[in-house]
Amino acid sequence: MWTGERQSTKMRIKYLEAALSQDIQYFDTDGRTSEVVFTINTDTVMVQDAISEKLGNFIHYMATFVSGFVVGFTAVWQLALVTLAVVPLIAVIGGIHTTALGKISGKSQEALSQAGHTVEQTVAQIRVVLSYVGESRALQAYSSALKVAQKLGYKSGFAKRMGLGRRHRMLRVRPSAGNPFHRRDLGAAYLHQRVGR
User: Fold this and answer.
1) DSSP conformation class of 116
2) Per-residue confidence at 130, pLDDT binned at 50, 70, 90?
3) Neighbours of 87 (CB within 10 A)
4) pLDDT class for 28, splitting at 50, 70, 90?
5) How many domains, in total, are found in the chain?
């Protein structure tokens, strides 16, 4: 956690230094202030999450996965072998799930950036907006950008539910091969391998 915080702080400082050392022409064409601020915040938070939380979770889940299969093979090796055959299908489903969520997340970030830019422009030019009675137009532009982000949030939730449902369905395929086993053995093997998913 501290490592992720340190790295993201260093990245924020370096990014801000690089943005401030640009010529003024950069901000006229390529970089709006809202984009620079939004990019600093979102990108460094993603890096911090990857270093601190996701790396720790990866190590935890891999250790649990391996230990679950070790215990599963010692308890009921036939059922563990059937489960091992399902692992590639679960990995493919996880890859599709991650790709879909990444695309939706990118579109959502873009919509939120657009909404932030609208607010920043409105606040920066509040006198002009008020003199031309443009409050309702600015509010409508902001609301439409947020509605896009909201719809993408719904899609993201649906994609998460579908991914988890498919993974759990693949985990349920395995007990159908366990008919000759005693119910207690099936329960023990399921519990050990469920922990090791």
Assistant:
1) H
2) confident
3) 14
4) low
5) 2
